[in-house]
Amino acid sequence: MSEEPREHPKDPLHGVTLETVVRTLQEKYGWEEMSRRVRVRCFTDNPSIKSSLTFLRKTPWAREKVESWYLWETRRKPSH
Question: H-type helices in the chain, by residue range?
Answer without folding.
Answer: 18-37, 49-58, 60-76
